[in-house]
């Protein structure tokens, strides 16, 4: 007979790995949004499947079942197909070691029910929360159908009358109802904790940005004024000097310009990131920026390749978007050390999570970056340039995020860097396609 305590034990065994995953992975300090730790998902699933099998739920004298199928689904969806397949075929091994080969008659039906999670696994991360919840209800229902078919076969063909009793049917119905609720709660909890981890990362970034912004707002103007005066007098003196002193004056002016650029970066952090919202023709914007940067790239021994889709629009601040793209292109050009370097700019419309985005990819064949360097990109005062401050890239990240977009760097030392920018796409009627 089905016991409440058995259901509660199985429920706890399914939920515990979620909190262990939070404790060992999500609660750690992350510079960027945490990625799924697939190995940890697989190990926790294997451990808890084994524990599940130690405390089976007795449906009748000849039938015992567990919630372990949910851990198999979780391993597939959050650990990927490879981890999922390992977990799937580890379960019959555990069952054989703990009991005997006769208990494996349910495994083919469990294998059939795993087809759906195996199909949706690669797209699971990009699904909306509503779609994830719908699938988390559908999966145990399909499993229930498979098991009910097995019980029907045993009752009708093999004549197991025990499976035809009202008590067994009621126990099976209660079991699969609780199983479905547990799966839904398991997915909800995973999504909730992962979202909290992302929020923590964003809060850490916001605190750093606010600290730098407050510093910028308080001192930038005060520093810029004396620099302007010094620059003016240096230019006057330069006109009256000659020879070595004149070269010294040029060097002083160069350093003053660099100081001015640093102050401008501070001021950009202190100002609101979107000062105006207008329709931006990103096709024209990208062509304009690449034309502007082509001369600079040529001087550095690199050339630009542009391939963008026609009629791409977004909403935002034209000047800020332009500044962000220029910063990225400038960093790419400066990362190229050889004379035959290149920068590729590609842009197209891409559909994700039931809406369309403009994906901009900037790829170079420069020196590349290590994993540790990638994790620190966008932090204040971290730069790979000898005289860099890191503020330019920090401003770029802030601009993209302020436009409800995302920016991601992919790189490998010695093999160049790829920058992926996603911006929400905006649709216009043909008669209104003229950019404002």
UniProtKB/TrEMBL annotation:
<feature type="transmembrane region" description="Helical">
    <location>
        <begin position="133"/>
        <end position="153"/>
    </location>
</feature>
<keyword id="KW-1133">Transmembrane helix</keyword>
<keyword id="KW-0808">Transferase</keyword>
<keyword id="KW-0547">Nucleotide-binding</keyword>
<dbReference type="InterPro" id="IPR004358">
    <property type="entry name" value="Sig_transdc_His_kin-like_C"/>
</dbReference>
<keyword id="KW-0902">Two-component regulatory system</keyword>
<dbReference type="InterPro" id="IPR005467">
    <property type="entry name" value="His_kinase_dom"/>
</dbReference>
<dbReference type="Pfam" id="PF00512">
    <property type="entry name" value="HisKA"/>
</dbReference>
<keyword id="KW-0067">ATP-binding</keyword>
<dbReference type="InterPro" id="IPR003594">
    <property type="entry name" value="HATPase_dom"/>
</dbReference>
<feature type="transmembrane region" description="Helical">
    <location>
        <begin position="7"/>
        <end position="27"/>
    </location>
</feature>
<feature type="domain" description="Histidine kinase">
    <location>
        <begin position="218"/>
        <end position="427"/>
    </location>
</feature>
<dbReference type="InterPro" id="IPR003661">
    <property type="entry name" value="HisK_dim/P_dom"/>
</dbReference>
<feature type="transmembrane region" description="Helical">
    <location>
        <begin position="39"/>
        <end position="57"/>
    </location>
</feature>
<keyword id="KW-0418">Kinase</keyword>
<protein>
    <recommendedName>
        <fullName>histidine kinase</fullName>
        <ecNumber>2.7.13.3</ecNumber>
    </recommendedName>
</protein>
<feature type="transmembrane region" description="Helical">
    <location>
        <begin position="69"/>
        <end position="90"/>
    </location>
</feature>
<dbReference type="GO" id="GO:0000155">
    <property type="term" value="F:phosphorelay sensor kinase activity"/>
</dbReference>
<keyword id="KW-0812">Transmembrane</keyword>
<keyword id="KW-0472">Membrane</keyword>
<keyword id="KW-0597">Phosphoprotein</keyword>
<dbReference type="InterPro" id="IPR036890">
    <property type="entry name" value="HATPase_C_sf"/>
</dbReference>
<feature type="transmembrane region" description="Helical">
    <location>
        <begin position="168"/>
        <end position="189"/>
    </location>
</feature>
<dbReference type="InterPro" id="IPR036097">
    <property type="entry name" value="HisK_dim/P_sf"/>
</dbReference>
<feature type="transmembrane region" description="Helical">
    <location>
        <begin position="96"/>
        <end position="121"/>
    </location>
</feature>
<dbReference type="GO" id="GO:0005524">
    <property type="term" value="F:ATP binding"/>
</dbReference>
<dbReference type="Pfam" id="PF02518">
    <property type="entry name" value="HATPase_c"/>
</dbReference>
């Amino acid at each position: 007979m089905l016991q409440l305590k058995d259901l509660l034990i199985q429920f706890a065994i399914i939920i515990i790995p979620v909190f262990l995953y939070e404790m060992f992975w999500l609660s750690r300090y992350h510079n960027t949004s945490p990625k799924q730790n697939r190995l940890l998902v697989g190990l926790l699933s294997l451990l808890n499947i084994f524990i599940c099998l130690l405390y089976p739920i007795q449906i009748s004298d000849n039938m015992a079942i567990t919630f372990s199928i949910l851990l198999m689904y979780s391993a597939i969806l959050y650990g990927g197909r490879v981890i999922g397949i390992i977990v799937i075929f580890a379960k019959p091994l555990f069952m054989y070691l703990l009991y005997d080969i006769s208990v494996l008659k349910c495994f083919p039906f469990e294998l059939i029910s795993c087809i759906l999670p195996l199909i949706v696994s690669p797209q699971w991360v990009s699904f909306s929360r509503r779609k994830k919840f719908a699938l988390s209800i559908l999966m145990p229902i399909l499993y229930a159908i498979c098991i009910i078919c097995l019980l029907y076969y045993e009752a009708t063909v093999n004549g197991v009358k025990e499976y035809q009793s009202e008590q067994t049917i009621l126990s099976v119905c209660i079991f699969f109802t609780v199983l479905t609720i547990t799966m839904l709660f398991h997915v909800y909890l995973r999504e909730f904790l992962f979202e909290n981890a992302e929020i923590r990362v964003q809060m850490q970034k916001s605190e750093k940005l606010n600290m730098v912004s407050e510093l910028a707002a308080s001192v930038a103007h005060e520093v810029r004024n004396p620099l302007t005066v010094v620059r003016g007098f240096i230019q006057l003196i330069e006109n009256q000097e000659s020879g070595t002193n004149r070269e010294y004056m040029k060097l002083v002016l160069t350093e003053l310009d660099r100081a001015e650029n640093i102050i401008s970066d501070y001021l950009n952090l202190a100002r609101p990131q979107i000062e105006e919202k207008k329709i931006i023709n990103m096709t024209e914007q990208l062509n304009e920026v690449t034309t502007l940067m082509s001369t600079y790239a040529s001087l550095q021994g690199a050339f630009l390749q542009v391939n963008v889709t026609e009629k791409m629009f977004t909403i935002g601040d034209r000047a800020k978007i332009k500044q962000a793209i220029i910063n990225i292109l400038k960093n790419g050009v400066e990362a190229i050390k050889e004379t035959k370097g290149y920068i590729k700019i590609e842009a197209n419309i891409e559909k994700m999570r039931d809406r369309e985005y403009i994906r901009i990819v900037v790829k170079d064949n420069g020196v590349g970056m290590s994993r540790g360097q990638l994790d620190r990109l966008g932090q204040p005062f971290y730069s790979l340039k000898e005289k860099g401050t890191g503020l330019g890239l920090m401003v770029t990240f802030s601009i993209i995020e302020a436009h409800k977009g995302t920016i991601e760097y992919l790189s490998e030392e010695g093999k160049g860097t790829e920058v992926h920018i996603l911006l929400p796409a905006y649709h216009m009627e043909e008669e209104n396609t003229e950019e404002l």
